[in-house]
Structures are given as structure tokens and as C-alpha cells.
Design brief:
Two copies of one chain form a homodimer.
Chain A lengths: L11 H9 L4 H9 L5 H8 L3 H13 L3 E7 L4 E6 L1 H4 L2 H14 L8 E5 L8 E5 L11 E5 L5 H6 L6
Chain A binds a DNA duplex (30 and 30 nucleotides) through helix 3 and helix 4.
Chain lengths: 162, 162
DNA sequence: ACAATGGGTTCCAAAAAAGAACCTGTCAAG
DNA sequence: CTTGACAGGTTCTTTTTTGGAACCCATTGT
């Protein structure tokens, strides 16, 4: 499997990774969620090489995850903002954040906490079933071919996910 | 920021990415969740270069995400299995999967569906607050320094996440 | 004795990233 | 009317990572 064909794999994970599955993209998006919007600010906060940053921002814009919005004319300047597609990556960030909090924090605990505005508590995310509301884990799911499945998938699928 | 120092960043996202933030690791883990356990099988299913696969499996094992379990002696053969730390990455996979289903599927729909054993429905994951049970999104959260925060973080933090 | 099997390691060429310098409009100050 | 600053890139060159193929090694079946 080559990297450029990843977006045509019959797998939503592979397709997602074709956009966010490299060294820098999710860190750039972290800054977006923290309301960073300008080239210079991304560069300073991340310590990323400028041309790598330019490339990532371009690819994210082409993918519809970010959009360029002018914030002044003469000289024209544009900032990068999350689209709805980009905002929808929040669960991905949250899952990685919660996993890092649990497994990668030192003995002193995680470096940042997230507080839920609605209830006021420091929280983490729980994944629940969209239909019955029960918590989901790897052993509670089975996989089956969907409407976009190519024939080759049909023979491979059939087990559960653990 | 250099890649090798990512695991010491005061950010759980960066620390998580120091393990799963490269081109291949999450695809290797996808196969693990689909119960692939042997070197040859990873190689065939992923089409990954052998030494890259060997390197990823070693790093994941060192990180405690996979463990090597002997499945026969003479000749000794070992297989790779998810540890508890690895199984805990399921929400990350699920988030990426759901995002791909929603945003990266063609008009014919997603290639695979996940069915919840408990309720029998085809489902996706919903992220809810661990304290109040309400759905979470980017705009409903604020960030604040945690117990492991270095001084530099204290001035940068303080906004919400969108 | 010889090939097959599982699980690697080694070598070389191609692609991607790091780091630093350079370019381009548009102002604003001297 | 020249000099400098600023935002936002682009162009080099050097180092790391990949991809692809070949090779290695212990066992075991024929």
C-alpha cells in the first residue's frame, strides 16, 4: 500500500489517515482548536519548518478541513479556520488527549485538563453507542461490509474487533 | 520541536502522537484490532516494507501497546497482541473511523459498518461527558492547567477550545 | 540433503523533513 | 524616495524515513 493511494482504500480509518496520519497535521489542528489562525503563530508555537507548515496548511485547506478567510485587505492577509469538517475532528483529538492523559502522563498527572462548560466538571470523554447509549469498547463490536464495500472486503470481514 | 522530544512535551496529544503519529502505526493497530497477530500476516495485509514493520512492532512493544506472546516452542514463534494500553486505543480508532465514514466515504457510503453486540444496531460512537453524560463538542469545553503543567503552559492556557 | 516457513536484517535508491536563506507586497518612518 | 518591518511564503542543501528487494537463520517436513 502506498501513501498516495491511502484515500482510495476501502477503509475509513485509512482514508482518515490519508489526511491526519502524518507527523505534523494533528499538531497543527491542535493549534487550530486553541484558536491559532495565522501562519507565523503556527510556526512559533510548533517550531515547524516553514515549508512543511505551508504544505500542511495547503493540504488541509484542499481537503476542506480548514478554510482561508481574509482578515484584512491591502495588504491582503488571510487566516486559517476550521470548517465544519475540521471541527468534526474534535472527537479524534479528545480520544488522543484522553489516552495520553491516562497512559503517557508522568506521576504528577496530565499537563492540561478539560472542563465541561455545561456541568462545570473536569471531564474526559466516554464513547457510547449512538443507538442504545451504552459505553463501547473493542470487544463489544462486530464489523460487517457496508454499502461501499468492494467484493474483496466481503471475504475478509466477519469477525469482531478483538 | 523535534520528533524525538515529542514524548516530553507538556501535551497529552503530542505524547500520544509520539507513539501513534506516524504513517503506519495506526494501520498496524487496525490489523491488531482485527485479530491479526503475526509478522507475515501484517506484511501481506498492509503491503508494508518488512523493516518498517519490524521497527513499528518493536516500538509498539517497547511502548507497552503490544506484547509478544509465544504461541509455540521449537521453533519458538511469537505473536503480537494488544495490551490493555493498546486496547484503550479503541476510542481513537473509532473516532477516526466515524470521521472517515462521515467525511471520506463516496456517494455509495462507508465500506464497513460496526454493529453493537449488545443492542444489535449498526452504530457510531458518540462522545459524552464522563460526569454529566451530555454530548461533547469543541465549543463546550475549556482548557486549564493540570497537575503536570509546567510554568510556561500557565500563560498560554486560559481560552476555550474553539 | 533440500526446500519451505516464520521472522527477521542488510543494502540501495527514492521521498520527506529539518534548517536556513531568500523573495514579495504593502505600508510607515526618516 | 530609500530603508525597514511584517506577513506569508518559496528555494536551497543536508539528514531521516520509506520502499523494494535480497539475504540470513533456526527448525521441520519430504
Amino acid at each position: 500500500m502506498r501513501w498516495e493511494e491511502l484515500d482510495r482504500e476501502p477503509c475509513s480509518l485509512a482514508r482518515s489517515l490519508s489526511i491526519v496520519g502524518d507527523r505534523w497535521t494533528l499538531l497543527v489542528l491542535r493549534e487550530c482548536f486553541l484558536r491559532v489562525r495565522r501562519f507565523e503563530e503556527f510556526e512559533q508555537r510548533l517550531g515547524i519548518a516553514r515549508h512543511v507548515l505551508a504544505d500542511r496548511l495547503k493540504k488541509l485547506t484542499e481537503a476542506g478541513v480548514l478554510r482561508k478567510e481574509p482578515y484584512q485587505e491591502r495588504p491582503r492577509r488571510e487566516e486559517y479556520r476550521l470548517t465544519e469538517k475540521g471541527l468534526d475532528l474534535y472527537p479524534v483529538m479528545l480520544s488522543l488527549l484522553d489516552w495520553g492523559d491516562k497512559w503517557m502522563a508522568g506521576p504528577e498527572g496530565p499537563p492540561l485538563l478539560r472542563r465541561h462548560k455545561a456541568c462545570g466538571h473536569v471531564v474526559h470523554a466516554v464513547h457510547v453507542c449512538s443507538e442504545c447509549g451504552e459505553p463501547l469498547d473493542a470487544r463489544s463490536m462486530t464489523v460487517e461490509p457496508g454499502p461501499g464495500a468492494p467484493p474483496a472486503v466481503l471475504k475478509a470481514a466477519g469477525g469482531d474487533t478483538k
